[in-house]
Amino acid sequence: MSIRVLVVDDSALIRDVLKKMLEREGDITVVGTARDPMEAREKIKALDPDVVTLDIEMPNMNGLAFLERLMRLRPTPVVMVSTLTTKGASETLLALELGAVDFVAKPNADLSGGLETFGIGLRERIRAAARADVRARSQRETGTQAPLKWAGSPSGALIAIGASTGGVEAIRAVLTRLPADAPPIAIAQHMPAGFTSRFAARLNELCPHTVVEAEDRMQMRAGHVYIAPGDYHLRIERSSGILKCRVEHDELTSGHRPSVDVLFSSVAKALGSLAVGVLLTGMGRDGATGLGEMRKAGAHTIGQNQASALVYGMPRVAFEEGAVVEQAPIDAVAERVVHALTRLRKAA
């Protein structure tokens, strides 16, 4: 049974391009299009689509205002089709906070810049969105909880986190609960260039830590979070007892750059048992192999559970392959990390 999609964009050209791209492989059907949120509201009621694609800048009502209303009144999987600009990146991250499942960068006005690649990415995100349980997520959201208190972690420890679809909100939920003096935290979130700097800036506003986009050879410090830059891998190395970021633009790994497998594998080599690995929501299998390497090296590994994951893909594969020591709902992940680091400290 095909996935039924409603395309919402004020450009007739973009609506036509999206329709053609979505229907190319036969498993997705565009059941309707709308040029603004007012028309979209009526068509959602009439057509009951499985997924909605949504632009942000539209007449009559801003796409963000429409998204907020839609998620509150009729939770529906939404994929944002966003412009790849600084303003567009900020608005897209806000859309993900409001409940959008994922986003894809809109093709250029002249339709250059890799339409085939754009189409592949768009279809992948629509398929993942169709499986996402946005209604359950909407019912679970209870606001930000205060950071946990603890007696501290062992010297030289590190927390590594990986995520994809649904990861923006899942990462925020974990970071806002981790103590401000937590050991260095390294994060690989599947996100293109141009978005990760805004992602880091937004987390820096919301979390008790200092959050930055990682730079090559940057020394890692407690209370700091390092985000893998879009289109670059993040690896961790230890030199003379000092942890450093290595940021490199080499080949795709597990289909991604940044890749969670690359981050986790480097952590397994550099830190062994002095690390905690966390694999959150996302489609595919990136992270499962690297998390398995971390577990074999003695690290404590945590996978987000199915009930709380927007897309139970990456953590499911890791669990099935034996890479996960324990599964936990998203609102308990930070607590499990703290417990693991506390045990490490007592054993040191």
UniProtKB/TrEMBL annotation:
Q: Which PANTHER family match?
A: PROTEIN-GLUTAMATE METHYLESTERASE/PROTEIN-GLUTAMINE GLUTAMINASE, PROTEIN-GLUTAMATE METHYLESTERASE_PROTEIN-GLUTAMINE GLUTAMINASE
> What domain notes does the record hold?
Contains a C-terminal catalytic domain, and an N-terminal region which modulates catalytic activity.
Check the record and name the Pfam families matching this protein: CheB_methylest, Response_reg
Which residues does UniProt mark as catalytic?
Answer: S164, H190, D286
* UniProt-listed Enzyme Commission number(s): 3.1.1.61, 3.5.1.44
Show where the Response regulatory domain sits.
Answer: 4-121
A Gene Ontology biological process noted in the UniProt record is: chemotaxis
Coiled coil among the record's keywords?
no
Q: How is it modified after translation?
A: Phosphorylated by CheA. Phosphorylation of the N-terminal regulatory domain activates the methylesterase activity.
For this entry, the protein name equals Protein-glutamate methylesterase/protein-glutamine glutaminase
Query: What are the record keywords, sorted?
Result: Chemotaxis, Cytoplasm, Hydrolase, Phosphoprotein
Reactions catalysed, semicolon-separated, are:
[protein]-L-glutamate 5-O-methyl ester + H2O = L-glutamyl-[protein] + methanol + H(+); L-glutaminyl-[protein] + H2O = L-glutamyl-[protein] + NH4(+)
* Designated gene of the protein: cheB1
